[in-house]
Amino acid sequence: MVDLAAGGALEAAAWKVENLDDFEARLERAALRVDGLAKVYETAALVIYEAALMKSGRPVEEVRRLVREFEETFEDPEEDLTIPRASGIMNVEGDEWFFGDESLRTLTGQLLGQFQHRVAQYNYVDETEVLRRWADSYDTRLFIRRRIHETEPIAGVVAGVDLPLIQYLRVAAGGDTVVPSPETSRALVALGILDEGAAGDDYAVLAAAENLALRLELPAPIVGEMLYDLAVEDRLEFPEPPPETTDEETEEAAEAGEGAGGTDQSSVRPSPDDRAARGAARREADRGEEPTRIQDPQAKDAPGVREEDGGERSTPVPPEDEPPESAPGTQDKDS
Known about the structure:
mainly alpha, 54% helix, disordered N terminus
């Protein structure tokens, strides 16, 4: 993946997206779509059920049609469709609720069981909220960031749950992340924040998309929807940002702000010009001209320093070898 810390690649990519001629319209469409999905996922058991069915590779519309049919069939106004209840129904029903695939039935049952244990660890917390907390938890993010999602102790340990599937479940549960896909990868490559060689690396795609969402200050699922649409529509030509500030201007700005915090040791180090001025002041002192605070504010032997430290200022004594005539005021007497 491109070194995001160098060259301002993420900042440039965010500028390109924000300056699309139809950015506001795309943002609104993506936000409405994500909001609509959130309303569909009001039951934790159905969120898990849909994520498991996506393993079939069927279109999402077909998967959701089956999920809605399951909900309508077993809906009971007196009993919620909780995870334990959905799991019990699926244990006695046939494989028609899993596109006739017994392995999908096993996968769904194992996922439901894992989250049933997770819910049991909380007291009086709604199942949907438990699922959302898992999706956005630090531990879940850490397992994925370290590329060891298969050791994640909830969904990751279920055989058959790969990274795209676990990401689909996280997004469906309300997590602030994206689902890696070839379309998203193409858009990130076109924006210049993902190397073509890493286009097939789901972890790299995920990291680039989430970092772009941070720069855009938008929820990651919304950014993911926008990137997907751009790739599907083949809208991968973006406006170019204005030329960046020259290196000289950058260096001048850095020098101007150096030591602004008051704790940087380099801010109290004298510059070469300061050292030369202090040397000249010391040479003047050798000729009887003592440096003042204005000439050298950091000089320890400048007048006034001892007074500030609480000491007494000593009375200056004229040089012993200097003739009386050179003393101040004697020339005026002779004239």
